[in-house]
Amino acid sequence: MTNVFIISAPSGSGKSTLVEKLRKQVPNLEFSISYTTRKPRGAEQNGREYFFVSREQFQQMIRRNEFLEYARVFEVDYYGTASRFLRKAEQYGNDLLLDIDVQGAKQIREKIPDAVSIFILPPNRSELEKRLRERGQNREDDIQRRLDDARREIENYEKYDYILVNDRLDESVEGLKAIVLSERLRRSGQEDRCLSARAEMYRLKKIRERVQPILQSFREVAAGGGK
Ligand code: ADP
Ligand code: 5GP
């Protein structure tokens, strides 16, 4: 059986960094490469980070019903998961990892109710801003738009099964690994108590208090009219 893992996070939280490390450490986990109408950034390559397509090509894929989900992200570009990635994972008996936004996560939950969803949060707003700047891939207006979008996106954290605050990178990788491996074991009728206990630390009820100051750091700036 193929387990589907959804990972969402505000841009700059460290999701790609975490996913890359997870993929190196966890076998039989396929990554769905999304289609997007946005232009490649930095060293991004077609078919590696994304399939970069034109608006026309994307719309043709919609008409042909080739997407498991798709959404317009940042009110500019389209991003979508092709259904063939799920078929391929099922064929090879692998699990599937989707790096998608909150709109896409909602669509997947409707189609695949037992998909496991994980939301990654930055430690606070100023750390997110710092990471976006230090990544050096976005223009100033783009950074401001992503910060603004982050504020809206993080309000959806309660819809996710697990919430991981990406503070120390090595700790976050171990946490993410524990979530994926414990869910995989549990669903195959086995359990590793140590892994399960680690994964449970990221359940909503356990993390709620930790999340409040993070949300507050975003709300304060919004209330102050932004920077
Ligand atoms: P995303 O995929 O969520 O947009 P990235 O993985 O590109 O984010 O990370 C944004 C920046 O933050 C990168 O420069 C990355 O090296 C850095 N980063 C990621 N995780 C951490 C962390 N835990 N602590 C400090 N910097 C981090
Ligand atoms: P970026 O432009 O920074 O690579 O990604 C922007 C946002 O688009 C991220 O939140 C990312 O998770 C989301 N995204 C990437 N691929 C998909 C996809 O296939 N579907 C949806 N709904 N969102 C996606």
| CATH H-level superfamily of the domain at 4-32 and 96-224 | P-loop containing nucleotide triphosphate hydrolases
Span of the ends, CA to CA: 48 Å
Rg from Cα: 17 Å
Q: Specify the CATH architecture of the domain at 4-32 and 96-224.
A: 3-Layer(aba) Sandwich
**What do the pLDDT scores average to?**
94
Largest sheet, if any? 5 strands, parallel
The residue ranges in which pLDDT falls below 50 over 5 or more consecutive positions are none
Write a concise keyword list for the protein shown above.
227 residues, binds guanosine-5'-monophosphate, Rossmann fold, 9 strands, alpha/beta, 4-stranded mixed β-sheet, single chain, 5-stranded parallel β-sheet, binds adenosine-5'-diphosphate
Describe the structure.
The chain is α/β, with parallel strands linked by helices and 227 residues long. It has a domain at 4-32 and 96-224: Rossmann fold (3-Layer(aba) Sandwich), CATH 3.40.50. The chain has 9 helices and 9 strands. The chain has helices at residues 15-25, 55-63, 83-92, 102-111, 125-135, 140-154, 169-187, 193-200, 204-223; strands spanning 4-8, 29-31, 34-36, 50-52, 67-73, 77-82, 95-99, 116-121, 162-165. The relative contact order is 0.17. The model has no long low-confidence stretch (mean pLDDT 94).
